[in-house]
Structures are given as structure tokens and as C-alpha cells.
Write a structure and sequence with these properties.
Layout (H helix, E strand, L loop, with lengths): L4 H12 L3 H20 L4 E3 L3 E8 L2 E4 L6 E4 L2 E8 L1 H8 L11
Antiparallel strand pairs: 1-2, 2-5, 3-4
């Protein structure tokens, strides 16, 4: 199952006993801050979860698969994610030095 914004809002609403509109505002504000930070070219580190990194891709040669024509693909920015060791242990069910921390 994929978790979407609606699931996140419902989870916050249930766990923190917040009204749905406040939980929605909280999630939307968090996501907006993340988007603005990444758009500014800054990385985001969330301890115990991972790091979102902005990477610059260079201009490169490409090929149109339908026509076979060569073309030049413009440089662009992409976001990558590196998970923390705590998240890795949680995902793999392996107790590690951080396994006693609540996530």
C-alpha cells in the first residue's frame, strides 16, 4: 500500500488527537517547507530517517527512442534520498545500536 497525504493527515489526526483541518495544515506546511528548501538547492537532513540531497546533472547526449535521432539533454537538478542507518535497521528488522530508539 502506498501512503499518501490523506493517510498522513489521518494518522496525525488519530495519534495526536488534532482536528483534521489542523493536521492537514501541519502536513501541508511541512511539505511546503521541504519543497522550498530543496528548490533553493539546500539539503534536508531528518535525523533517524534520512537525507534529501539536491544534485546537479550535467548536459548530456541522448537519443530519441522513436526516431533514433541524437539530441542534447539539458542539465537539470534532481533530488536523491539517502536513508539513515536507523531506518535501514527498522526496514530490515535487524536490531542494531539504535534499535531501542522509538521511530
Amino acid at each position: 500500500m502506498t501512503v499518501n497525504k490523506t493517510h498522513l493527515i489521518s494518522s496525525i489526526h488519530n495519534r495526536l488527537d488534532l482536528p483534521k483541518n489542523q493536521a492537514s495544515h501541519l502536513v501541508e506546511s511541512l511539505l511546503e517547507n521541504i519543497k522550498k528548501t530543496l528548490a533553493a538547492g539546500e539539503d534536508i537532513l531528518i535525523s533517524g530517517f534520512g537525507k534529501f540531497c539536491v544534485k546537479d546533472k550535467k548536459t548530456r547526449r541522448g537519443r530519441n527512442p522513436q526516431t533514433g535521432d541524437d539530441l542534447i539533454l539539458d542539465g537539470r537538478r534532481v533530488v536523491t534520498f539517502r536513508y539513515s542507518s536507523i531506518l535501514k535497521e527498522k526496514m530490515n528488522g535487524k536490531p542494531g545500536k539504535y534499535s531501542s530508539l522509538a521511530i
